[in-house]
Specification:
about 325 residues; about 10% strand
Length: about 325
């Protein structure tokens, strides 16, 4: 990312990236995957202090982060009114005066993510904006509903206008090492999505080890996942830097082997602007600038945007505003 806020067009880039078609399940490759936990943790412990950005540089990175947010509401008390307000926030994520000061009028979030029942409301609220609607699916968050119903749920969300589907895998396939079953399940989900892009949620906090995370990431990519995603946000442990490093390096290995780029989405627990900066730095270090675009990287978040907006307001005005001024819905 440029060191100064030089980018004047805030619209999301229209990039022509070939979609990951998947490949045959390579069990030898899967079995060869290992994860050195202590080395991974040491590497991640250094990240917050190694990539410090200030002033204009920090503002530029935070503006980039906004364009990568899947603005999310996944609560049992969601209403159509709340979803419409969330969509309005996605369309105008930051005070217009602040964006004018930064030369970034027209900035939007990357997507809006909701339950299936709220997809029609979100699609209508975002009509004409180019902001896609993502729907969580396949028995989210546990993924334990009957298989035919999980496939049908995907079809219903696509028919309702969702352009992205966030599916949850069956954790038991990973915990028992049944990689063929995970591959077959993921491949069926990808087929049911059709033209809609599919994000595979691994629920990494429930997979038992970083090695399992690495292997599950690889199998889902082999089966055609467009993105791999850490968490539902409902687990006790969600996105962490060690898990992210493992998944990002699996993406890099898959790209090196196949030539296809797969996206990454950390979700759950990322609520502070400073945390977003660390994840962006990690992505650029490990995968390069190309992965800092909305078609290959997203934050799954509900409260992150509010803190970023406060930081940008401080950058422009020199004062922090009250948190209640930046509510999501």
């Amino acid at each position: 990312m440029e060191s100064h806020i030089a980018e004047r067009s805030a619209q999301l880039p229209q990039l022509a990236e070939p979609r990951n078609p998947g490949m045959e399940l390579d069990l030898d490759w899967v079995a060869a995957v290992q994860a050195n936990t202590s080395a991974i943790e040491r590497r991640c412990a250094t990240l917050p202090g190694r990539r410090s950005v200030k002033k204009d540089h920090q503002a530029a990175w935070l503006l980039k982060a906004i364009s990568l947010i899947d603005l999310t509401t996944l609560s049992g008390d969601d209403t159509e009114g709340r979803v419409r307000r969330l969509c309005a926030k996605a369309r105008q994520p930051v005070n217009p005066g602040i964006l004018r000061s930064l030369g970034m009028e027209g900035l939007t979030t990357g997507a809006v993510c909701v339950y299936h029942d709220m997809v029609p409301t979100a699609v209508k609220a975002l009509e004409g904006t180019g902001i896609p609607v993502a729907a969580v699916s396949t028995g989210f968050p546990a993924g334990l509903s009957p298989f035919h119903l999980r496939l049908a749920e995907i079809g219903e969300s696509v028919s309702a206008g969702a352009e992205e589907i966030d599916i949850v895998i069956s954790r038991r396939h990973v915990l028992t090492g049944n990689w063929q079953a995970l591959y077959d399940e993921m491949k069926a989900f990808r087929l049911a999505c059709g033209e809609a892009h599919v994000k595979a949620i691994l629920a990494t906090g429930e997979l038992g080890s970083l090695r399992n995370v690495a292997r599950a990431s690889l199998v889902c990519m082999m089966a055609g996942a467009d993105f791999i995603k850490t968490s539902t946000g409902k687990e006790s442990i969600n996105a962490t830097l060690p898990v992210s490093l493992v998944m990002i390096r699996a993406i890099r290995d898959y790209y090196d082997r196949t030539g296809y780029r797969v996206g990454y989405k950390p979700a759950g627990g990322i609520s502070k602007a400073k945390d977003a900066l660390v994840y962006l730095a990690l992505m650029k270090d490990e995968l390069g600038h190309r992965w800092l675009q909305p078609d290959l990287f997203r934050f799954g978040a509900s409260s992150l945007l509010g803190d970023i907006e406060r930081q940008l307001e401080h950058h422009v005005t020199g004062a922090y505003s009250a948190g209640y001024r930046h509510s999501m819905g």
